[in-house]
Design a protein that fits this description.
The complex is a heterodimer of chains A (about 240) and B (about 450).
Chain A: E1 2-6, H1 11-22, E2 26-31, H2 34-47, E3 54-57, H3 66-77, E4 82-85, H4 93-98, H5 100-127, E5 131-136, H6 149-169, E6 174-181, H7 201-214, E7 218-221, H8 224-234, H9 237-242
Parallel strand pairs in A: 1-2, 1-4, 2-3, 4-5, 5-6, 6-7
Helix pairs in contact in A: 1-2, 1-7, 3-5, 5-6
Chain B: E1 7-10, E2 16-23, H1 27-30, E3 37-38, E4 56-59, E5 66-69, E6 75-79, H2 84-91, E7 96-97, H3 109-114, H4 122-125, E8 132-138, E9 144-147, H5 153-159, E10 168-175, E11 177-178, E12 183-191, H6 194-204, E13 210-215, E14 227-234, H7 264-277, E15 282-288, H8 289-293, E16 311-319, H9 325-336, E17 341-349, E18 363-371, H10 376-390, E19 393-394, H11 404-425, H12 434-440
Helix pairs in contact in B: 9-10
The chains are: A alpha/beta (about 240), B alpha+beta (about 450).
Chain lengths: ~240, ~450
């Protein structure tokens, strides 16, 4: 598999990129910081990635460069079979309410800019005759919830966009995989009290890679979150107003 | 940056302190204002715990990238949170192994440097620090720099075995060894007493690269020091099974055992059975490297066996000059006080360390697992007094009970040299741990 990652220098993206490296996939890394990209590229090379692991600078805050970054990745890989997007920002509801500029930035990065990146990736994959577009959304987008109102709204928008993309392009060979992680212990959630069913990045990565290989449209990780969110979606408004989940 | 509330941090022996761990992939960015690094928390005592007045520690485990590996020379470099378990998983199938491995694979490279760990091949290959070629560090004045045996040699020597007190270890570079297979030719031998044990270790040393012994430390009198000597070497490709060893079932202790489970009686029973198991004078076979190196890793959270109060491991080294009888004198102190140790390990050391405060020196080392009871402090004091008389010293990676005056009596000039280097690199003593407060008066 020739795969381009946006945001795989950290967290779940790092874990997923390592799994693909260890089975000998060919990898190109997109990210903000060229030094960080080089270090991750070295890691993936030693772990078994086929051919040199290239780094291409790409910042989710600079949408004007998305197309050229994806073209560069495509050229480095000699084609393109999959694009994985794990990049994004997180902040708590309190932090976002206290800082409107941060809230605006978070919505822009996690929703509009991620959508624009996916548009560019989709175009490239369709030109290749199809492929997998795997994007990390969140269970936070499943229902309006007190601790994740703004973050969840951006992720809800992203989930709906990906759903539509799947409907429109499935017949053309585009496999859109929407990943909905629950609480996973990464540096993004550092400092937050983990719930009892918090996941580990490696386990999430194994589940996501399985979904990518099968072309499964939606994957919850850890799996338990499918059940948890089914319950949350079924709760009446009166209860959602009372609980703090 | 978001910091978690205070919670309980503990060492492997479950000695604990209030603190919080700062985590992140980019250690260079997040280490500037913290004063102690902590990896997987496998040091037994308080070495990885923060002092009371400075509760935040840097957790290095997210900084786990391999930075380079040269298949020809074996030179390997990684971020300090990279673990020995990952190293084994990735590189053993390609025919490489760490030059030195401690008795657990759940350790980070940073921790292996800070404790200057040793393994079953200490008599031949020394400590991990003997194989480290370069370290990247953040030091007290904020600079990030490389040190090696040639560059900032004083900092390098103080950091090897320096228990994290010279700065944050960010990257570690060392030489890997080639191995012919992932299997070990192991031989076990029944040993009747402590003197025979020391003879047997010495005899085996030139012939076997890996040696260690288990002692039934409840046996007294003429049986004192009876046990089983285990020796090993890598199986050649034509001796080894054609497949790679598979990890077996790994149970995990999910609750603390009540303290009576490991009482004098049950330990006596276990020791008797374990000793009798080796009913032949010698036996040999081919075993997986996991069962040879990491028998206890097979049970996750085995430290819960010792109950809520936890345990301490007392590990000392007795120098060659102290003579054969010194090991018997130390075991006498233990048995005279009725101290029951579930696990007692004996091993000969052959090489002096490179690190200024590193533990090993040529001689005999004894390691005793002791459940914490009301009288543990007295027992450790008594053992330390004996070890001081023998001219020996203790292993800081295991310790949580030693008194400052005992430590000073053991370390004398080595401690002065270590502190002089800290005066140069960290005059205001930014880098401190609960252990350094206790033993160095930081």
């Amino acid at each position: 598999m020739r795969v381009a990652f946006l945001g795989a220098t950290k967290g779940m993206g790092r874990a997923l990129a390592r799994l693909t490296a260890e089975r000998g996939d060919t990898i190109c890394l997109l990210g903000r910081n060229s030094v960080d990209l080089e270090r991750s590229a070295a890691d993936l090379s030693v772990r078994g990635a086929t051919g040199p692991v290239r780094g291409v600078v790409c910042d989710l805050e600079k949408p004007e460069a998305f197309t050229s970054a994806i073209d560069a990745a495509r050229e480095a890989l000699g084609g393109l079979d999959a694009v994985v997007v794990t990049a994004g920002v997180f902040a708590t509801q309190e932090e976002l309410e206290a800082d409107p500029a941060l809230a605006e930035r978070l919505v822009r990065i996690n929703f509009s800019n991620t959508v624009m990146f996916c548009e560019a990736a989709k175009k490239a994959l369709l030109e290749e005759g199809g492929g997998t577009l795997c994007v990390f959304s969140s269970v936070a987008g499943e229902r309006g919830r007190k601790p994740v109102i703004i973050y969840g709204a951006a992720k809800a928008g992203l989930t709906r966009y990906l759903e539509g993309l799947d409907h429109k392009h499935h017949a053309e060979g585009l496999r859109v995989v929407t990943v909905k992680p629950g609480f996973v212990k990464t540096s993004m959630t550092a400092g937050l009290e983990p719930p009892p069913f918090a996941g580990e990045p490696d386990a999430v990565a194994r589940r996501v890679l399985g979904a990518m290989d099968r072309g499964a449209p939606v994957v919850y990780a850890p799996a338990l979150w499918r059940l948890i969110m089914a319950v949350i979606r079924a709760l009446p408004r009166a209860i959602m107003r009372r609980i703090n989940f | 940056m978001r910091e978690p509330p205070l919670s309980t941090l503990s060492g492997w022996g479950r000695h604990s302190a209030q603190g919080r761990e700062r985590v992140g992939e980019d250690l260079e960015r997040i280490s500037a204002d913290v004063n102690l690094s902590r990896g997987l928390g496998r040091s037994y005592g308080d070495a990885s715990l923060p002092p009371d007045d400075e509760p935040t520690v840097l957790n290095t485990t997210f900084a786990d990238r391999i930075l380079s590996f040269d298949e020809d020379s074996g030179l390997f470099r990684a971020e300090s949170g990279f673990t020995l378990g990952e190293l084994n998983r990735l590189l053993m199938p390609r025919g490489y192994f760490s030059p030195v491995s401690p008795g657990t694979k759940f350790v980070t490279l940073g921790g292996m440097v800070a404790a200057d760990v040793h393994g079953k091949n200490q008599h031949k290959d020394g400590n991990f620090g003997h194989h480290v070629t370069s370290l990247k560090m953040r030091v007290a004045d904020g600079r990030v720099l490389d040190c090696s045996p040639e560059r900032h040699a004083d900092l390098f020597r103080a950091t090897i075995g320096g228990m994290g007190l010279t700065g944050h270890i960010l990257e570690v570079e060392f030489g890997m060894r080639r191995i012919p297979s992932q299997w070990i030719c192991q031989e076990s031998r029944r040993i009747h007493d402590i003197d025979e044990f020391q003879d047997a270790l010495e005899e085996s040393a030139p012939e076997w690269p890996y040696t260690m012994g288990w002692i039934d430390c409840l046996a007294r009198g003429k049986n004192m020091g009876r046990g089983i000597l285990m020796t090993g070497r890598w199986a050649e490709a034509d001796q080894a099974p054609p497949r790679a060893p598979k990890p077996g079932f790994q149970p995990s202790l999910r609750f603390d055992w009540p303290s009576w489970v490991l009482s004098g009686l049950t330990i006596r029973l276990f020791n008797e059975l374990y000793y009798r198991k080796q009913w032949r004078r010698r036996s040999s076979g081919i075993v997986s490297h996991e069962s040879f190196y990491y028998p206890l890793d097979a049970i996750r959270s085995w430290n819960r066996m010792y109950g809520r109060r936890g345990f301490t491991q007392y590990q000392c080294v007795l120098p060659r000059e102290a003579g054969r009888a010194s090991a018997r004198r130390v075991l006498d102190v233990l048995t005279a006080r009725g101290g029951a140790s579930f696990l007692c390990v004996i091993k000969d050391f052959g090489r002096e360390s490179k690190g200024i405060l590193s533990f090993p020196r040529p001689g005999i080392t004894l390691a005793l697992d002791i459940a914490v009871r009301d009288d543990t402090q007295d027992l450790v004091d008594a053992l330390n007094e004996q070890v001081i008389q023998e001219g020996g010293r203790i292993y800081l990676a295991k310790d949580s009970f030693t008194r400052r005056e005992h430590f000073e009596a053991m370390e004398g000039p080595r401690l002065d040299e270590f502190q002089a280097i800290r005066d140069r690199w960290d005059p205001n003593r930014r880098f401190r741990s609960a252990q350094s407060v206790r033993l160095l008066g930081d």
